[in-house]
Design brief:
- This protein has a single domain (7-320), classed as Ribokinase (UDP-N-acetylmuramoyl-L-alanine:D-glutamate ligase, 3-Layer(aba) Sandwich).
- It contains ten helices and 13 strands.
- It has helices at residues 38-48, 63-74, 127-130, 146-161, 179-189, 200-205, 213-224, 262-275, 280-294, 306-320, and strands spanning 7-10, 14-18, 32-36, 53-60, 78-84, 93-97, 106-110, 134-138, 165-169, 195-199, 228-232, 238-242, 245-249.
- It has a nine-stranded mixed beta sheet, with helices on both faces.
- The longest helix has 16 residues, at 146-161.
- The chain is globular and about 50 Å long.
- The relative contact order is 0.13.
- The model has no long low-confidence stretch (mean pLDDT 95).
Length: 321
């Protein structure tokens, strides 16, 4: 009997190059190199929290492509990769320069002509999707190319036909496309999404939604028939609407060492808890704890475990009492 895969994700993973803190991109002589991508961050975070997770993507069959795969496997992720000709494609990269106020953190993308831009559903090893209980992707992937957008739609449809619960994190990136183009593309996909994760600022800017988080969640659920809508509100926490019931969750205090990947850790915590049978309220609590923990860890991936989550949740409960 073929076992059930807890979670399948699909999307681009790049190599992240960062100079030492305090140094500038234009003068540094060294870079720290790590893999980073929204969907693989979710897969890795969920795997570290006990889920059986598979990441689907396309990479060049090169040392850099294999570097991405080996790093994700080190976090317990199973990988399903379409390998491309390294002479005709590349691994996307991004450069992250950490900076405090008033300079701020700077991100420079170099992802044109990455292998993922030519991906087609037929070339991906999608066997795990046929037995997956959950499928997850984000709004970054369809922004990369027409083929990536078509493949995103095809995998969402296939996951639905296989009976998986499909989640989608809006994850709008202004450097990839404008709000109007993004909105049209997102709304074309919404018929194939069961759970939507959306920051309140993006719901307003990209989806044209007004009002507070609860109003936004209710409007989106009514218009697109989502089973669950999770609206994140930054330092104000998050709201989830499921079956007409509203759940609210605050943030856990954290000293921020590296904020990149916080949203992906939130999604990973939420999905992992639901995979383990948790309620929406419990999943929100795990999500908030995972997000707080990620801020203390360098790199894109939340290198945490269930004991870390329990420490945050139980510690907050002790303070509340």
């Amino acid at each position: 009997m073929v076992g059930v895969t807890d979670l399948v994700t699909f999307g681009e993973t790049m190599l992240r190059l960062s100079p030492p803190r305090g140094e500038r991109l234009e003068t540094t002589e060294t870079f720290d190199v790590q893999a980073g991508g929204a969907e693989s961050n979710v897969a890795a975070g969920a795997a570290r929290l006990g889920a059986d997770a598979v990441w689907l993507s396309k990479l060049p069959d090169s040392p850099l492509g294999r570097r991405v795969v080996s790093e994700l496997r080190s976090h317990g992720v199973r990988t399903g990769v379409a390998w491309a000709d390294p002479d005709a494609s590349r691994v996307g990269t991004y450069y992250l320069e950490h900076g405090g106020d008033p300079r701020g953190t700077n991100v420079v993308y170099d992802r044109a002509d990455a292998a993922i831009t030519t991906v087609e559903a037929e070339e991906l090893p999608t066997g795990a999707l046929e037995s997956a209980s959950r499928f997850h992707t984000t709004g970054i992937t369809p922004a990369l190319s027409e083929r990536a957008a078509a493949t995103t739609a095809a995998l969402l449809r296939a996951a639905g036909e296989a009976g998986a619960t499909r989640s989608f994190d809006l994850n709008y990136r202004a450097k990839l496309w404008d709000p109007e183009t993004a909105r049209a593309a997102y709304e074309d996909l919404f018929d194939h999404v069961d759970t939507l994760f959306v920051p309140r600022r993006d719901a307003r800017r990209v989806l044209g939604r007004e009002g507070d988080a609860v109003t936004i969640a209710n409007g989106l659920a009514a218009d697109f028939d989502f089973e669950t809508v999770v609206v994140t509100r930054g330092t104000e926490g998050a709201v989830a609407l499921c079956d007409g019931e509203v759940h609210e969750q605050g943030v856990f205090d954290a000293d921020t060492f590296d904020a990149i990947g916080t949203g992906d850790a939130f999604v990973a915590g939420y999905l992992a808890k639901q995979i383990h049978g948790g309620s929406v309220a419990e999943a929100l609590e795990w999500a908030a704890a995972a997000a707080a923990l990620k801020r203390t860890v360098g790199g894109d991936i939340a290198v945490i475990d269930p004991d870390d989550i329990a420490g945050v949740v139980d510690g907050a409960a002790s303070i509340d009492r």
